[in-house]
Amino acid sequence: MTNKATIHTDAAPAAIGTYSQAVKVNNTVYLSGQIPLDPETMTLVSEDFTEQAHQVFKNLAAVVNAAGGELKDIVKLNIYLTDLNNFPLVNEVMSQYFSQPYPARAAIGISQLPKDSLIEADGVVVI
Predict the structure, then answer these.
(1) How many Å apart are CA 22 and CA 115, to the nearest integer?
(2) Which of 124, 109, 115 has its CA nearest to residue 38?
(3) Residue 3, SS3 per DSSP
(4) Mean pLDDT, rounded, for 78-95
(5) Span 113-118, mean pLDDT?
(6) Which family does it belong to (predicted)?
(7) 25 forms bridges with which residues in the sheet?
(8) How far apart are alpha carbons 13 and 73 in whole angstroms?
(9) Exposure pattern of 101-114 as b/e (b: 16+ CB <10 Å)?
(10) What average pLDDT does the segment 114-124 reach?
(11) Rounded distance, CA 67 to CA 84, Å?
(12) 72 class by beta-carbon count within 10 Å (0-12 exposed, 13-18 middle, 19+ buried)
């Protein structure tokens, strides 16, 4: 029997559509995409890519914490970028939130993200 629960925290932006911040099934948590919204104002934190990347990881951390885990528990991370030239900056920012062993990761270039953000990330966590 599976134990399925939706995860919600006010420390991360509220869902802006028909989805949950995360869904936990047994010891696995499936994170919805986080964009760089300030959880209180629901607006982009900045137009600066690095500041947006930091906010994305802060938002992911808040949801992971609400599920009972930590960022280090992420086993698969997907990062979506509107400009792949920002890839080196993603690595720089990620190094401030993760240490080895790093999660498996994909970095995908796309044309547009919600609210015209420059970055979005989702992932899978095992607690």
Answers:
(1) 20
(2) 115
(3) coil
(4) 98
(5) 97
(6) Belongs to the RutC family.
(7) 4, 28
(8) 21
(9) eebebebeeeeebe
(10) 97
(11) 31
(12) middle
* Closest listed residue to residue 66, CA positions, set 126, 123, 9: 9
Q: Which residues contact 91 (CB under 8 A, 6 or more apart)?
A: none
Q: Cα angle at 88 between 91 and 61, to 5 degrees?
A: 30
Judging by DSSP bridges, how do beta strands 104-109 and 4-7 pair with one another?
A: unpaired
What SS3 class is residue 92? helix
Query: The whole model's pTM is what?
Result: 0.96
Give just the sign of the alpha carbon dihedral 37, 40, 45, 50. negative
> Quick one: pLDDT at residue 2?
76
Beta strand 4-7 pairing with 22-25 = antiparallel
Per-residue pLDDT band for 16 (boundaries 50, 70, 90) equals confident
Evaluate if residue 1 carries a pLDDT over 80. Answer: no
For the chain, the 3-state helix, strand and coil shares in percent, each to the nearest 5, are 30, 30, 40
What is the Rg, in whole angstroms, of the alpha carbon atoms belonging to the chain?
14
